[in-house]
Design a protein that fits this description.
The complex is a heterodimer of chains A (324) and B (254). By secondary structure, chain A is of the alpha/beta class. Chain A is built from 8 helices and 18 strands. Chain A folds into 2 domains: 183 residues, 3-Layer(aba) Sandwich (Rossmann fold); 120 residues, 3-Layer(aba) Sandwich (Rossmann fold), CATH 3.40.50.1220. With 254 residues, chain B is α/β, with parallel strands linked by helices. Chain B has 2 domains: 204 residues, Rossmann fold; 32 residues, no CATH class. Chain B contains 6 helices and 13 strands. In chain B, strand 8 and strand 9 form a beta hairpin. In chain B, helix 2 packs across helix 5. The longest helix of chain B is centred in the N-terminal third of the chain and has 17 residues. Classes of the chains: A alpha/beta (324), B alpha/beta (254). Chains A and B meet through helix 4, strand 7, strand 8, strand 9 and strand 12 of A and helix 3, helix 4, strand 7, strand 9 and strand 12 of B.
Chain lengths: 324, 254
């Protein structure tokens, strides 16, 4: 017992959420490093598509935690089912993609076993007495090295975009069903099936140049200068979450984990500090330019070019330079 | 309707963050603090529910003595009472012991709803509210972008990734972790600030610390993933240099 790394994979819209494959990659590395076996579990009701994707990866076992009451998703059903999986498997490490769904059930699952979840990790490195998990503090300005203490299982959730899905070792795993007993009376929420929000009129994913604004623009009227810059450079206007929350630009312009994921040739991050939620949506851009008055803003760690300065001074200067 | 709202004081958004000598926490001297961004939305949601349904809003915060500042802010905005749970820990506070301290204080009253922000701007674990719900044995949901309290239950819309949403109803009592942007947080009025001085603010010691199951060994400024070329000079010089480089080196603009 305690000789297993368990990955709890996630299906979304009847497909494996690709973030799960990144966690499989991390799990393969951790299992090899610690001399443990690797098991993936996929909870849900209809699991064919997700199981088929997972079956193509190198795993020691692939468990389908299948029950009609696991769809639509509820925290109560997930924790009841996964609690039975924990009792059966008794894993040492439990790796979970840090998705919105995991954020909903994983802290509860860990707490129900009086265990801790080391959440939103961006790296795993070997340490003297077991793996060291790297997570971010102060919205990416600081990293922290964290170790698990006490008795296993040790629950860890991993940020998207930190382990390339391409690095997953392929293999052929045979899916195996695991029976769980669930009763409708255990589920306190009356949940409906997920639905897509209003159709997006703007598809930023195909834009070659994106001019994106954040908190640093400070006022709604300053959006106009960003709009002029976007026109001058021939790009689309995007924004980080705080700008959308203020209502200065519509939701369809939001880039990041709760908005669109983009990979343009050029991404201008103007007054965007670079929280992990934003970085997930844009770090695939070929060339990244960051303008921020805080020289220590995390966005500069991902930028090819940087200007430390006030975006309200730099944006007009860029328009002038483009026209000159 | 009795509503508890968990709020946190964090360093102000633009604060320069420096690591202290022992490498376990940041230098706190000269830092400015503010109410955690996501918690502002949770506080506003709590006050709006009270305005619609009547009842009481109790703001609760775990932290050192300076945390009473955000509780005063909450009282000025419309909370009725505040509870400060004293914890002076200049280090990372893992979510399990933090939630145990909060749950211990919250369990002394019977709340119909407990709200928190989705995650904190400083430690960002994004777990505390969910664990509080588990410890109190009440239903919860997270990433809430819309809510409506009806008879004995709360209907919410929660955000999933990539533009998807899920609607659900929870029986009361329930805990909701509120996504930012759900409402427009109000400013404290002058009248509110005066009134806040007369509202009760109780201070209680944190429950004895329990096993955290995780420990932060050290904190540090992360390494860069890219070799950034910084363009110096006044805005015009920097802008011209940038455009030139985008044309010549990056080959993007023609």
């Amino acid at each position: 017992m305690n000789d297993t790394v368990l990955v709890i994979a996630e299906q979304r819209n009847n497909q494996l959420n690709p973030h799960s494959l990144e966690v499989i990659a991390a799990g393969q590395q951790l299992a090899a490093q610690q001399g443990l076996s690797l098991v993936a579990a996929l909870p849900g009701a209809t699991l064919d598509a997700g199981a088929a994707s997972l079956a193509e990866t190198r795993l020691d076992d692939l468990l389908l935690v299948q029950h009609d009451l696991l769809e639509p998703y509820t925290a109560d059903a997930y924790c009841a089912a996964l609690g039975q999986l924990m009792a059966e498997l008794n894993p040492k490490f439990v790796l979970i993609p840090h998705t919105y769904q995991a954020r909903d059930f994983a802290p509860k699952l860990a707490a129900s076993l009086d265990r801790s979840l080391i959440s939103d990790c961006v790296g795993i490195k070997p340490g003297e007495s077991g793996p060291v998990f790297v997570r971010q503090l102060f919205q990416g300005k600081v990293n922290a090295d964290v170790v698990a203490l006490g008795e296993p299982p040790y629950f860890v959730s991993l940020q998207a975009g930190c382990w390339p899905a391409e690095s997953v070792e392929s293999g052929s795993a045979t899916p195996r069903s695991m029976d769980v007993s669930l009763d409708a009376s255990q589920i306190r929420a009356r949940a409906e099936a997920p639905e897509r929000g209003a159709a997006q009129a703007v598809d930023l994913s195909s834009a070659e140049i994106i001019v994106s604004v954040g908190n640093g623009i400070e006022k709604e009227e300053n959006i106009e200068i960003a709009r002029q810059l976007a026109a001058a450079i021939g790009g689309e206007l995007g924004a980080s979450r705080p700008v959308i929350d203020e209502g200065w630009l519509p939701l369809e312009r939001q880039i990041g984990s709760s908005g669109q994921t983009v990979a343009p040739k050029l991404y201008l991050a103007l007054g965007i500090s670079g929280s992990s939620q934003h970085l997930v949506g844009m770090k695939g851009a070929k060339t990244i330019v960051a303008v921020n008055k805080d020289a220590n803003a995390p966005i500069f760690k991902h930028a090819d070019y940087g200007i430390v300065g006030d975006v309200m001074e730099v944006m007009p200067a860029l328009i002038k330079a483009l026209q000159g | 309707m009795k509503i508890g709202v968990c709020i946190k004081q964090v360093p102000a958004k633009d604060s320069p963050i420096a690591i202290n000598e022992d490498g376990r926490w940041i230098r706190e001297d000269d830092l400015k603090y503010e109410l955690c961004g996501p918690d502002e939305y949770a506080l506003e949601a709590a006050i709006q529910i009270k305005e619609q349904h009547g009842g009481e809003v109790v703001a609760v915060s775990l932290g050192p003595a300076r945390s009473t500042d955000v509780l005063r802010t909450a009282l000025a905005k419309g909370a009725d009472r505040a509870v400060h749970i004293q914890l002076d820990a200049p280090e990372v506070t893992p979510p399990l012991p933090a939630a145990k301290a909060l749950a211990e204080a919250l369990s002394k009253e019977s709340f119909d709803l407990i709200l928190s922000g989705l995650q904190s701007d400083d430690q960002g674990f994004g777990q505390t509210g969910v664990i509080v719900a588990e410890l109190l044995g009440i239903a919860h949901t997270t990433v809430v972008v819309d809510l409506e309290v009806t008879d004995g239950e709360v209907k919410v819309k929660r955000e999933l990734e990539g533009g998807w949403y899920q609607s659900l109803s929870l029986p009361l009592p329930a805990m909701l972790a509120i996504q930012s942007g759900i409402n427009t947080p109000r400013y404290a009025s002058f009248k509110g600030i005066i009134a806040a001085k007369k509202k009760p603010l109780e201070s209680v010691p944190a429950a004895a610390s329990t096993e955290a199951h995780q420990q932060t060994l050290k904190i540090y400024v992360p390494e860069k993933t890219k070799d950034t070329q910084f363009l110096e000079g006044d805005p015009d010089d920097a802008a011209q240099a940038l455009i030139a480089k985008l044309k010549t080196e990056a080959g993007i603009l023609s």
